[in-house]
Amino acid sequence: MTRSAIFGGTTPSVRILFVFVAFLLVAGASIAEQSSNMASAPLPASPASLPIVPTTPFSKPVAYPSGGEVANSLYMADVNGDSIADLIALNYNSDGCETANTTEGTVSILLGNSDGTFKPAATYDSGGFCPTAVIVGDLNGDGHPDVIVLNCDPIGQINCPSASVSNVGVLLGNGDGTFRAAVTYNSGGSGAGSVLLADFNGDGKLDVAVGEQNNNGGTIGILVGKGDGSFQAPVSYDLGISAAHAAVGDLNGDGKPDLIATGCIFPNGGACERAMVVLSGNGDGTFQSVVSYDLVPQGKIAIVGDLNGDGHADLVFASEFAHPPRGLGLITVLLGNGDGTFGPAHSYGTKGEFTDSVAIADINLDGIPDLIVSSAYTNFSSNNEGRIDLFIGNGDGTFQPSKAYASGGNASQVVLAGDFNRDGKPDIAVANACADISCLQGSVSVLLNVFHLPTTTSLTSSLTPSFVGQPITFTATITSTPTVPDGTPVTFTANGTLIGTGATTSGVASVTISTLKTGTHPIKATYGGSAIFNASSASVSQVINKYSTTTTIVSSLNQSSYGQPITWTATVKSSGPVVPSGIVKFGTLGSAKLIGGIATLTKSSLPVGTYAITAQYLGDLSSMPSSSAELDQVVNPAATTITITSSRNPSRQGQSVTFRARLTSFTGAHPIGSVTFTAGKTVLGTVTLVSTAATISTSSLPIGTALVQATYNGDSQFQGSSVSLNQTVNP
Question: Taking 90 as the threshold, does the pLDDT of residue 457 lie above it?
Answer without folding.
Answer: yes
